Structure formats: C-alpha cells, structure tokens
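Second attempt. The first submission of Inosine-5'-monophosphate dehydrogenase had a stray character pasted in from the spreadsheet, which I only caught after the job came back as garbage. Lesson logged: always re-copy from the clean sequence file. Corrected sequence (497 aa) follows.
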Amino acid sequence: DGYAAAQLFGQGTTYTYDDVIFLPGHIDFAAHDVDLSTHLTKKIQLAAPIVSSPMDTVTEAEMAIAMATLGGLGFLHNNMTLGEQLSHAQRVKRHVPGFVLAPVVLGPQATVAEYDALRAQGSAGGVCVTDSGGVGGRLVGVVAGRDVDFVADRQGTLLREVMTADVEAAQEASAEEALAQLQRSKRKVLPIVNAAGELVRVATRETSLDERRRPRLGKPSTDAGGRLLVGAAVGTRDDDRERVDALRGAGALDVVILDSSQGDSVYQLQMLALLKRAHPDLEVVAGNVVTGAQAQRLAEAGADALRVGMGSGSICTTQEVCAVGRGQAAAVFQVSRVANGLGVPTIADGGIQTSGHVVKALALGASTVMCGSLFAGTAEAPGKYFEVDGVRVKAYRGMGSLEAMAKGSETRYYSDTQALKIAQGVAGTVRDKGSVRRTVPYLLQAVRQGLQDLGARDLPAARAALASGAQRVEARSSSAQAEGNVHDMHSFKKVRW
Ligand code: XMP
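This time the job returned cleanly.
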C-alpha cells in the first residue's frame, strides 16, 4: 500500500511538501512522549528541531535569544557590519532567560521627556537610573509611570528630581528568585546588582512570569558554560574569514553558516578547508544544495551540516529567474539520503508554512527546519510594526531582493558588482504574528502529534522508517489537496500551526 519514498521521488516529477502525503503508522505511545531532540550539526544537539533563517528581517539578537531559549537556534544575518554582528552575538551570549532583553537605563540628568520617548518606542516596565546612564553603572533609582504622570514641565524636569531612590534591588538573583521577590514586593521591576551595587540586569513581573508560563519544551540550547547557543551567517570572501575569527575570538559563535543560494562551489570548498584548519572545533554549515551529488561534495569536504533548498522560500524568485532549483520535498529527501549516509545532518530551509510541512521535512530525513516567513512579523523579528490597509505588519524581504542587496547581501547570489543587478527575491510585508515564545510551543506540539500519527517516537525512528521503505508515501492529486484542505464551509476560522 503506498510507495517507498525512493520510488515516489524517482519518477521524474519534482514534488514539494504539499504534493506529498504520508500514510499513517501504528501508535503505541502518547504525543507527549514524542522526543523532538535532534542534531543541528554533527556536534550540536538541540531539544527542538527548529532554527531561524539568517535574513535581515528575521534574525538579530532578539530572535536568536528567543529561538535558543525555546530549544532551537537563531542564525544572525550578515547584512550588517562585523561590529554590528558581533554586538548581536554578544547580546545572545550574555542573555539570561527570565530577564529583560535590553534593559532601558537612563542617567539622573536625563529629562522626563527622554523617558517619554523611550516609553513611546515600546520599552516595557520601569526605567532604571544609574550614575553612568547605562548597564554597569551604580544603581541610583527607578522611574515608573506613577513618578512622572503629573509632571507638567517634561523638558525641564530631570529624572533625579522625580525618581524613586529607595529601590528594592537583588544581588545576583536567579530567574526563580527574582520571581519570588517580585511576588513579595508587589513591584513591577527588580534591578539585579553586583556586590558593588552596579546594575547587571533587570527582571520585571512580565519577563519572570513569561519564563514560568513557558510550556516545557526541554532544555534551552546552551554551550558547555550554560550560555545560549548562537549561529551566524558569513560569505566566502577573505573578510568573511576575518568575521569568523573575530566572532569566534570573542567567544560569540557556536556555529557558522556559509550563506549562499548555490553552495556547490569552489568558494565554499575553499572556505570549508580554511575554516576547518583555523577553527577545528567550530561547526560549519554549508549549502544551499538540492541534489545528492552536491551534498556528497560538501559533506566530503568536511561540512558539519547541509542546508537544503533552492527557490522554495516564500520570497524567492530563483527558480523563475535562473531556472534552477527543486521542489522542496524532493530536495530534502534526495540530499538527506546522501548526507545522512555520511553522518551529516540536514537543515530543510524554505517553504515551511505549517506544522504539517515541518513533519514532512523531518520525516523526509531533515534533522531541523529553517524558517524565514514563519518567524517574520513576530515581535522578535527586526524592524517596527506599521499599518497597511488597517493591518498591522512588519517588513519581510528576500536576501536577493534589490532592497536587501542594496545593503550588501548580493554576494549570496554571486551578483557581479560590475554588471546589472538581478533580483532573486521580493520585498514586502507579513502580518503581525505575535511572539515566537507563544507560537513555537504550539507548532512543536502539533509536530509531535504528526510524528505520533506516523508511529515515530523520535526523529531517528522516522528516518529509519523512511530509509527502510516502511514509511509509505503518495503523491497528492490537485483534488486530493483540495480535499485535504477545509472545503464546503459557509464560514470558518482557521488556526494554522
Ligand atoms: P521561507 O519560505 O521560510 O524561506 O520564507 C526562507 C529561505 O528563503 C531563502 N531566501 C531566498 N531565496 N531569493 C531566494 O531565492 C531570496 O531573495 C531569498 N532570501 C532568502 C533562504 O534560504 C531562507 O532561509
């Protein structure tokens, strides 16, 4: 009944996720017993098989922190200077879950108007006042709404005149201790100081409760020292090697991704060799690839993981512009077949819109999925929200769009700087999707249920069933796809995971 994947994908048609369907297996375990832990690379293990894409509208420090906190990982984009990328990477490395990401701190000489401006930008909770005006300065007070509500002269009033100087602070408290203290004090903000009274970080009622409410996902992704894991994208030029040296030298890089739409090139082979020689312990992801032959070349050159996909992303036009690529289900299956045989995990990159796509990618042999559009438009994505036709949106753009290339990402597409620029992606907007901290847990639970339906307790079991042919698959006709979607309803509300 049904086909082995090798039969289905060996018939001359390229298939994407929506074109295929998996036949169910036998269930003898609960969905919460499904173990999603996985390998991102040969050496890095994650509790959740999900990473965010190195795109300039998807992953900067805030997204990378959220992803690692949720058991996945974020890859910082490289459409920014080395200094900027380094500062994002260091922010991830310094972050302690349960505390404010970027505490808002002002000096005692700042005006109430400056406080208002910060609040207008959406900084939550109270503002700490230190003698230096930043983290690391001696804590002298806290300012909250009640301190300034009735101040008439906002330009002329200084924070030192209105701040609450009698601050309850804690010394080097853990997230749990901070929550307990906030509960006791009934205050909104708890500054954490060191023995010298210098501000180290800030806990708020919201961040502490968030950490407690966070559904159990397994452990956050951390290094041997307990700091969050972070990845970064680089290109393959000499200055990209300097980037890796600097990030690695600062202890702020666990895994690097060689970012290219077509990774099977002499540039990546050379870069792999040079990076492996200079940083033997650094995990290097190569790609993107879509065929077994490409996978074999990069795997044999020492890649620690392969990123799979060409033209499958929601903002991609590579297949239309360059006539190359592959349906994403076929690409994930064919690349993973070769790569997994060589002990190299694969990352299914692009085209993920639902939990069903994640299940399909993992069951076709990928060890993790990489998402762009799914995470664009979330609170953690870079950029500010704005309104288009009454809908709250954020910008999302392909790294091969003219807009992104204007900022420097053209090397990803081998764009010839001497010639005309050819776009291989679009720029646009996506809806406000709330916080990944709220949505990713639901997405992962839906994936567990999908694997349970397949009869796979964990990802290795799903991969083994695929390789042996025990997992049966079929292609879906267009009417089967229509049938698999909601139909014949007058109206309905769909919640997508
Ligand atoms: P999703 O579907 O998650 O895809 O939005 C994200 C992935 O798309 C790739 N990417 C591009 N591909 N032109 C392309 O052909 C582009 O401008 C572009 N920008 C990103 C990339 O692999 C990303 O992870």
